[in-house]
Design brief:
globular; alpha+beta; Lipocalin
Length: 119
């Protein structure tokens, strides 16, 4: 009986470790283009680039919009650059990605923004 329990514990630990290793976090999945599907920014396509910058495209016009970095696996800090010179504004968002859906929640205002991966 003890051997059976020990085998179960080892098997459970191996499955748990494998499942955890295979789970991708938002910081691993964010690098691509995402289209806003709600609110006043509906239709805007935001690209998160490997160099930590973002661009936004709307009606065929593109512009750099800011810099981002993950401070936790699912928490991103964003500094907009489209506001011009002056005071630095840093926003923090909780990012949840499931398949091709991204939910970005402002940690200050709790406002959710929904985006879809552009294919």
């Amino acid at each position: 009986m003890i051997r059976l329990v020990a085998r179960f514990v080892v098997l459970f630990a191996a499955v748990t470790i494998t499942a955890t290793a295979d789970e991708k976090k938002p910081k691993d999945l964010i690098l691509c283009k995402w289209e806003s599907v709600d609110g006043i920014s509906k239709g805007v396509v935001v690209e998160f680039k490997a160099d930590g910058t973002t661009t936004a495209t709307f009606n065929g016009k593109s512009m750099p919009t800011g810099k981002f970095k993950f401070v936790e696996d699912d928490v991103m800090e964003f500094e907009p650059t489209f506001l011009g010179k002056g005071e630095i504004l840093t926003m923090r968002f909780r990012m949840k990605i499931a398949g091709d859906d991204l939910i970005q929640t402002d940690l200050n205002t709790k406002i959710e923004k929904r985006l879809k991966r552009v294919k």
